[in-house]
Design a protein that fits this description.
alpha/beta, Rossmann fold, 9-stranded mixed sheet, two-stranded antiparallel sheet, 9 helices, 22% helix, globular
Length: 389
Protein backbone atom coordinates (compact mmCIF):
# COMPACT_ATOMS: atom_id res chain seq x y z
CA UNK A 1 0.00 0.00 0.00
CA UNK A 2 1.56 3.37 -0.93
CA UNK A 3 2.16 5.83 1.92
CA UNK A 4 -0.60 8.34 2.73
CA UNK A 5 1.78 11.29 2.65
CA UNK A 6 3.57 12.77 -0.35
CA UNK A 7 7.05 14.33 -0.39
CA UNK A 8 6.97 18.15 -0.50
CA UNK A 9 7.25 19.91 -3.83
CA UNK A 10 10.39 22.07 -3.94
CA UNK A 11 9.62 25.76 -4.31
CA UNK A 12 11.11 29.12 -3.39
CA UNK A 13 8.60 29.64 -0.63
CA UNK A 14 10.12 26.75 1.30
CA UNK A 15 13.30 28.75 1.78
CA UNK A 16 11.59 31.87 3.09
CA UNK A 17 12.54 33.25 6.46
CA UNK A 18 9.06 32.68 7.84
CA UNK A 19 9.06 28.91 7.14
CA UNK A 20 12.55 28.01 8.30
CA UNK A 21 14.25 28.75 11.59
CA UNK A 22 17.17 31.19 11.69
CA UNK A 23 20.31 29.52 10.42
CA UNK A 24 22.86 32.22 11.19
CA UNK A 25 25.60 31.00 13.48
CA UNK A 26 25.93 32.39 16.96
CA UNK A 27 28.71 34.78 17.79
CA UNK A 28 29.92 32.75 20.71
CA UNK A 29 33.34 31.25 20.10
CA UNK A 30 33.77 27.52 19.94
CA UNK A 31 35.25 26.04 23.07
CA UNK A 32 38.89 25.17 22.90
CA UNK A 33 40.12 21.60 23.13
CA UNK A 34 40.58 20.54 26.72
CA UNK A 35 44.04 19.70 27.89
CA UNK A 36 44.82 16.05 28.53
CA UNK A 37 46.40 15.24 31.80
CA UNK A 38 48.86 12.35 31.76
CA UNK A 39 47.65 9.10 33.27
CA UNK A 40 49.60 6.78 35.40
CA UNK A 41 50.29 3.92 33.02
CA UNK A 42 53.23 1.69 32.38
CA UNK A 43 52.62 1.60 28.62
CA UNK A 44 55.26 3.60 26.67
CA UNK A 45 52.95 4.18 23.73
CA UNK A 46 51.53 7.71 23.31
CA UNK A 47 47.82 8.24 23.67
CA UNK A 48 45.62 10.06 21.20
CA UNK A 49 44.12 13.36 22.19
CA UNK A 50 40.44 13.31 22.95
CA UNK A 51 38.07 15.06 20.65
CA UNK A 52 36.56 18.32 21.88
CA UNK A 53 33.08 17.89 23.14
CA UNK A 54 30.39 19.51 20.99
CA UNK A 55 28.46 22.40 22.50
CA UNK A 56 25.34 21.19 24.15
CA UNK A 57 22.02 22.70 23.22
CA UNK A 58 18.65 22.31 24.88
CA UNK A 59 16.63 19.39 23.48
CA UNK A 60 14.29 20.36 20.68
CA UNK A 61 10.60 20.15 21.34
CA UNK A 62 8.36 18.03 19.11
CA UNK A 63 7.01 21.23 17.55
CA UNK A 64 10.50 22.42 16.60
CA UNK A 65 11.40 19.00 15.18
CA UNK A 66 8.23 18.97 13.13
CA UNK A 67 8.98 22.49 11.92
CA UNK A 68 12.42 21.42 10.72
CA UNK A 69 11.00 18.43 8.80
CA UNK A 70 7.63 19.47 7.46
CA UNK A 71 7.81 16.89 4.64
CA UNK A 72 7.25 13.75 6.79
CA UNK A 73 4.34 13.12 9.08
CA UNK A 74 4.99 12.51 12.76
CA UNK A 75 3.75 8.90 12.48
CA UNK A 76 6.53 8.07 10.03
CA UNK A 77 9.21 9.82 12.09
CA UNK A 78 8.32 8.34 15.46
CA UNK A 79 7.57 4.78 14.25
CA UNK A 80 9.90 2.13 15.67
CA UNK A 81 12.53 0.46 13.50
CA UNK A 82 11.35 -2.49 11.49
CA UNK A 83 13.31 -5.34 9.89
CA UNK A 84 11.93 -7.00 6.77
CA UNK A 85 13.39 -10.30 5.53
CA UNK A 86 12.38 -12.09 2.38
CA UNK A 87 13.31 -15.76 2.61
CA UNK A 88 11.85 -16.76 -0.75
CA UNK A 89 14.08 -14.31 -2.67
CA UNK A 90 17.13 -13.52 -0.54
CA UNK A 91 18.06 -9.83 -0.65
CA UNK A 92 19.90 -7.49 1.72
CA UNK A 93 18.05 -6.71 4.92
CA UNK A 94 16.05 -3.45 4.63
CA UNK A 95 15.71 -1.28 7.70
CA UNK A 96 13.16 1.50 8.19
CA UNK A 97 14.56 3.93 10.75
CA UNK A 98 13.23 7.14 12.23
CA UNK A 99 16.16 9.22 11.00
CA UNK A 100 16.18 7.89 7.43
CA UNK A 101 13.83 7.78 4.48
CA UNK A 102 11.05 5.23 4.31
CA UNK A 103 12.17 2.09 2.45
CA UNK A 104 10.12 0.78 -0.42
CA UNK A 105 10.10 -2.71 1.06
CA UNK A 106 9.17 -1.59 4.56
CA UNK A 107 5.53 -1.19 3.63
CA UNK A 108 5.27 -4.92 2.82
CA UNK A 109 4.51 -7.29 5.72
CA UNK A 110 7.42 -9.49 6.78
CA UNK A 111 7.42 -12.91 5.15
CA UNK A 112 7.05 -15.84 7.56
CA UNK A 113 10.25 -17.64 8.38
CA UNK A 114 10.47 -21.03 6.73
CA UNK A 115 13.13 -22.33 9.08
CA UNK A 116 10.58 -24.14 11.26
CA UNK A 117 8.89 -25.64 8.21
CA UNK A 118 12.19 -26.89 6.80
CA UNK A 119 13.45 -28.20 10.14
CA UNK A 120 14.81 -31.69 9.66
CA UNK A 121 13.63 -34.49 11.88
CA UNK A 122 16.27 -36.66 13.48
CA UNK A 123 16.08 -40.34 12.62
CA UNK A 124 16.93 -43.40 14.74
CA UNK A 125 18.04 -46.41 12.69
CA UNK A 126 19.04 -49.90 13.78
CA UNK A 127 21.29 -51.97 11.52
CA UNK A 128 21.68 -55.73 11.99
CA UNK A 129 24.97 -57.17 10.73
CA UNK A 130 26.46 -60.65 10.72
CA UNK A 131 29.93 -62.13 10.59
CA UNK A 132 30.43 -65.16 8.33
CA UNK A 133 33.32 -67.18 6.90
CA UNK A 134 34.82 -65.60 3.82
CA UNK A 135 32.47 -66.54 0.95
CA UNK A 136 35.37 -66.31 -1.52
CA UNK A 137 36.97 -69.34 0.11
CA UNK A 138 36.95 -72.43 -2.13
CA UNK A 139 34.37 -75.03 -1.21
CA UNK A 140 37.09 -77.64 -0.85
CA UNK A 141 38.33 -75.79 2.24
CA UNK A 142 35.15 -76.65 4.17
CA UNK A 143 34.26 -79.92 5.81
CA UNK A 144 30.75 -81.13 6.59
CA UNK A 145 30.17 -82.84 9.93
CA UNK A 146 27.19 -85.03 9.09
CA UNK A 147 26.74 -86.20 12.69
CA UNK A 148 26.61 -82.69 14.14
CA UNK A 149 24.85 -81.36 11.01
CA UNK A 150 27.15 -78.39 10.66
CA UNK A 151 29.77 -76.99 8.32
CA UNK A 152 33.27 -76.83 9.75
CA UNK A 153 35.59 -74.34 8.03
CA UNK A 154 39.25 -75.15 7.71
CA UNK A 155 41.80 -73.52 9.94
CA UNK A 156 43.05 -70.14 8.80
CA UNK A 157 39.87 -68.94 7.06
CA UNK A 158 39.28 -65.42 8.40
CA UNK A 159 35.72 -64.36 9.22
CA UNK A 160 34.43 -61.32 7.35
CA UNK A 161 31.38 -59.08 7.42
CA UNK A 162 28.45 -60.37 5.41
CA UNK A 163 28.85 -58.71 1.96
CA UNK A 164 25.29 -57.32 2.00
CA UNK A 165 25.55 -55.70 5.43
CA UNK A 166 27.85 -52.77 4.52
CA UNK A 167 25.18 -51.68 2.03
CA UNK A 168 22.65 -51.61 4.88
CA UNK A 169 25.04 -49.53 7.01
CA UNK A 170 25.64 -47.17 4.09
CA UNK A 171 21.89 -46.74 3.62
CA UNK A 172 21.49 -45.89 7.31
CA UNK A 173 24.27 -43.31 7.19
CA UNK A 174 22.82 -41.65 4.09
CA UNK A 175 19.41 -41.40 5.71
CA UNK A 176 20.99 -39.92 8.82
CA UNK A 177 22.86 -37.33 6.76
CA UNK A 178 19.72 -36.46 4.80
CA UNK A 179 17.81 -35.94 8.06
CA UNK A 180 20.47 -33.63 9.43
CA UNK A 181 21.27 -35.88 12.38
CA UNK A 182 20.15 -38.93 14.23
CA UNK A 183 21.52 -42.15 15.65
CA UNK A 184 22.64 -45.40 14.02
CA UNK A 185 22.85 -48.44 16.29
CA UNK A 186 24.48 -51.65 15.06
CA UNK A 187 23.45 -55.06 16.45
CA UNK A 188 25.18 -58.36 15.73
CA UNK A 189 24.44 -61.85 17.04
CA UNK A 190 27.38 -64.19 17.15
CA UNK A 191 30.58 -65.17 18.94
CA UNK A 192 33.12 -62.76 20.37
CA UNK A 193 34.77 -62.41 16.97
CA UNK A 194 31.58 -60.77 15.68
CA UNK A 195 32.76 -57.66 17.49
CA UNK A 196 34.88 -56.95 14.39
CA UNK A 197 31.76 -56.67 12.24
CA UNK A 198 30.39 -54.07 14.66
CA UNK A 199 33.69 -52.19 14.68
CA UNK A 200 33.60 -52.01 10.89
CA UNK A 201 30.17 -50.38 10.99
CA UNK A 202 31.35 -47.97 13.70
CA UNK A 203 34.31 -47.02 11.52
CA UNK A 204 31.93 -46.26 8.68
CA UNK A 205 30.07 -43.79 10.89
CA UNK A 206 27.63 -45.67 13.14
CA UNK A 207 27.14 -44.36 16.67
CA UNK A 208 26.69 -47.40 18.94
CA UNK A 209 27.28 -51.13 18.78
CA UNK A 210 25.65 -54.05 20.61
CA UNK A 211 26.87 -57.66 20.55
CA UNK A 212 24.46 -60.49 21.37
CA UNK A 213 26.69 -63.24 22.71
CA UNK A 214 25.56 -66.28 24.67
CA UNK A 215 26.41 -69.99 24.58
CA UNK A 216 22.73 -70.70 23.99
CA UNK A 217 22.90 -68.87 20.66
CA UNK A 218 25.10 -71.58 19.20
CA UNK A 219 23.25 -73.53 16.53
CA UNK A 220 19.96 -71.59 16.64
CA UNK A 221 17.87 -71.44 13.48
CA UNK A 222 16.63 -68.43 11.56
CA UNK A 223 13.44 -68.05 13.58
CA UNK A 224 15.29 -68.09 16.90
CA UNK A 225 17.73 -65.56 15.48
CA UNK A 226 14.80 -63.32 14.58
CA UNK A 227 13.42 -63.71 18.13
CA UNK A 228 16.74 -62.68 19.69
CA UNK A 229 17.12 -59.69 17.35
CA UNK A 230 13.54 -58.57 17.98
CA UNK A 231 14.11 -58.72 21.74
CA UNK A 232 17.27 -56.66 21.38
CA UNK A 233 15.51 -54.08 19.20
CA UNK A 234 12.72 -53.74 21.76
CA UNK A 235 15.32 -53.22 24.47
CA UNK A 236 17.06 -50.50 22.45
CA UNK A 237 13.81 -48.56 22.49
CA UNK A 238 12.93 -45.85 20.02
CA UNK A 239 13.61 -46.62 16.37
CA UNK A 240 12.29 -45.40 13.05
CA UNK A 241 13.84 -47.89 10.67
CA UNK A 242 15.51 -51.31 10.85
CA UNK A 243 17.93 -52.16 8.04
CA UNK A 244 19.52 -55.52 7.23
CA UNK A 245 21.33 -57.13 4.36
CA UNK A 246 19.10 -58.96 1.92
CA UNK A 247 20.59 -62.33 3.01
CA UNK A 248 23.60 -63.91 4.64
CA UNK A 249 26.11 -65.18 2.11
CA UNK A 250 26.79 -68.39 4.06
CA UNK A 251 23.28 -69.91 3.86
CA UNK A 252 21.60 -67.36 1.55
CA UNK A 253 18.07 -67.76 2.96
CA UNK A 254 17.10 -64.13 3.61
CA UNK A 255 14.20 -64.83 5.99
CA UNK A 256 15.42 -63.07 9.15
CA UNK A 257 14.19 -59.58 8.09
CA UNK A 258 10.67 -60.92 7.56
CA UNK A 259 10.78 -62.75 10.88
CA UNK A 260 11.86 -59.65 12.81
CA UNK A 261 9.14 -57.56 11.16
CA UNK A 262 6.51 -60.18 11.98
CA UNK A 263 7.54 -60.34 15.64
CA UNK A 264 7.57 -56.54 15.97
CA UNK A 265 4.30 -56.13 14.07
CA UNK A 266 5.69 -53.69 11.51
CA UNK A 267 5.87 -53.82 7.68
CA UNK A 268 8.84 -55.25 5.81
CA UNK A 269 10.20 -54.34 2.37
CA UNK A 270 12.83 -56.62 0.85
CA UNK A 271 15.65 -56.32 -1.71
CA UNK A 272 15.94 -52.54 -1.75
CA UNK A 273 18.18 -50.63 -4.15
CA UNK A 274 17.10 -47.13 -3.04
CA UNK A 275 15.62 -45.86 0.24
CA UNK A 276 14.30 -42.42 1.14
CA UNK A 277 12.06 -41.03 3.85
CA UNK A 278 9.08 -38.98 2.63
CA UNK A 279 6.36 -37.48 4.86
CA UNK A 280 6.76 -39.93 7.72
CA UNK A 281 6.97 -42.92 5.36
CA UNK A 282 9.75 -44.88 3.75
CA UNK A 283 9.87 -45.07 -0.03
CA UNK A 284 11.78 -48.07 -1.32
CA UNK A 285 12.77 -49.08 -4.84
CA UNK A 286 12.85 -52.88 -4.95
CA UNK A 287 14.78 -55.14 -7.30
CA UNK A 288 12.63 -57.55 -9.31
CA UNK A 289 13.57 -60.23 -11.81
CA UNK A 290 12.44 -58.12 -14.75
CA UNK A 291 12.79 -54.56 -13.45
CA UNK A 292 12.23 -52.38 -10.39
CA UNK A 293 9.28 -51.60 -8.16
CA UNK A 294 8.73 -48.52 -5.95
CA UNK A 295 6.63 -48.98 -2.81
CA UNK A 296 5.89 -46.97 0.33
CA UNK A 297 5.43 -48.21 3.88
CA UNK A 298 4.64 -46.43 7.16
CA UNK A 299 7.35 -46.06 9.75
CA UNK A 300 8.70 -47.89 11.64
CA UNK A 301 9.54 -50.61 9.13
CA UNK A 302 12.13 -53.25 8.29
CA UNK A 303 14.00 -52.98 4.98
CA UNK A 304 16.50 -55.48 3.59
CA UNK A 305 19.13 -53.85 1.38
CA UNK A 306 20.56 -55.46 -1.73
CA UNK A 307 23.96 -55.00 -3.34
CA UNK A 308 22.33 -52.86 -6.07
CA UNK A 309 22.16 -50.05 -3.50
CA UNK A 310 25.68 -48.97 -4.38
CA UNK A 311 29.24 -49.12 -3.18
CA UNK A 312 29.53 -48.45 0.57
CA UNK A 313 32.00 -45.93 1.90
CA UNK A 314 35.45 -47.12 2.90
CA UNK A 315 36.49 -46.22 6.45
CA UNK A 316 39.54 -44.02 6.76
CA UNK A 317 42.42 -44.82 9.07
CA UNK A 318 41.41 -42.16 11.58
CA UNK A 319 37.85 -43.51 11.68
CA UNK A 320 39.14 -47.04 12.19
CA UNK A 321 41.28 -45.89 15.11
CA UNK A 322 38.38 -44.02 16.69
CA UNK A 323 36.08 -47.02 16.26
CA UNK A 324 38.60 -49.24 18.00
CA UNK A 325 38.28 -47.06 21.11
CA UNK A 326 34.48 -47.19 21.22
CA UNK A 327 32.82 -49.51 23.70
CA UNK A 328 30.58 -52.29 22.40
CA UNK A 329 27.80 -53.38 24.74
CA UNK A 330 27.39 -57.14 25.25
CA UNK A 331 23.96 -58.62 25.99
CA UNK A 332 23.34 -62.28 26.77
CA UNK A 333 20.15 -64.30 26.62
CA UNK A 334 19.15 -63.32 30.16
CA UNK A 335 19.47 -59.64 29.30
CA UNK A 336 17.00 -60.19 26.48
CA UNK A 337 14.58 -62.16 28.64
CA UNK A 338 15.16 -65.43 26.75
CA UNK A 339 15.14 -68.76 28.56
CA UNK A 340 17.19 -71.81 27.53
CA UNK A 341 13.99 -73.52 26.40
CA UNK A 342 13.33 -70.79 23.86
CA UNK A 343 16.79 -71.31 22.40
CA UNK A 344 16.78 -75.08 22.59
CA UNK A 345 16.43 -77.52 19.73
CA UNK A 346 12.86 -78.34 20.71
CA UNK A 347 11.74 -74.78 20.01
CA UNK A 348 13.21 -74.56 16.53
CA UNK A 349 10.87 -74.02 13.63
CA UNK A 350 13.33 -75.34 11.06
CA UNK A 351 14.11 -79.01 11.52
CA UNK A 352 17.40 -79.94 9.90
CA UNK A 353 17.14 -83.58 8.94
CA UNK A 354 20.51 -84.06 7.28
CA UNK A 355 23.48 -82.09 6.04
CA UNK A 356 25.82 -83.71 3.53
CA UNK A 357 27.85 -83.05 0.43
CA UNK A 358 26.05 -84.34 -2.66
CA UNK A 359 27.85 -87.00 -4.63
CA UNK A 360 28.30 -86.22 -8.27
CA UNK A 361 28.28 -89.21 -10.62
CA UNK A 362 29.20 -88.75 -14.23
CA UNK A 363 28.33 -91.19 -16.99
CA UNK A 364 29.47 -90.97 -20.58
CA UNK A 365 27.69 -92.69 -23.45
CA UNK A 366 29.12 -92.79 -26.95
CA UNK A 367 26.61 -92.58 -29.82
CA UNK A 368 27.71 -94.55 -32.83
CA UNK A 369 26.23 -94.09 -36.29
CA UNK A 370 27.35 -93.93 -39.90
CA UNK A 371 26.43 -90.32 -40.60
CA UNK A 372 26.25 -87.17 -38.49
CA UNK A 373 22.55 -86.89 -39.26
CA UNK A 374 21.97 -90.34 -37.80
CA UNK A 375 23.96 -89.43 -34.66
CA UNK A 376 21.89 -86.29 -34.19
CA UNK A 377 18.64 -88.24 -34.58
CA UNK A 378 19.70 -90.79 -31.94
CA UNK A 379 20.84 -88.02 -29.55
CA UNK A 380 17.50 -86.23 -29.91
CA UNK A 381 15.62 -89.44 -29.15
CA UNK A 382 17.62 -90.01 -25.95
CA UNK A 383 17.16 -86.43 -24.78
CA UNK A 384 13.45 -86.66 -25.47
CA UNK A 385 13.25 -89.95 -23.55
CA UNK A 386 14.93 -88.33 -20.55
CA UNK A 387 12.50 -85.37 -20.88
CA UNK A 388 15.32 -82.93 -21.39
CA UNK A 389 13.80 -81.50 -24.55
Amino acid sequence: MPPSWQPPVPSASRCSKTASPPCSPTKSAAPSAPSISPRSSSSPWPRHAQRPSAPTSPPASPADEEARRPGRPPTARHAPARCVRNFTNPRPVVLSLRSGHAASQASNPPAPCRCAQEARVRVNIIVCVKQIPDPETPASSFRVDEAAKKVVPAQGIPPVVNPYDPQATEAALRLKEAAGGGKVTVISLGPESARDAIKHALAMGADEGILLNDPGFEGIDNFQTAVALAKAIEKVGQYDLILMGRAAADWDMGVVPMGVATLLGIPCVSIAKAIERVDGKVRVTRVLDDGFQTVEAPLPAVVSVSNEFGEPRYPQLRQIMLAAKKTVQVWNAADLGLSPDQLGEGNRWLKLEALYVPKVESKVEIIEADTPEEKARILAQKLRADKLI
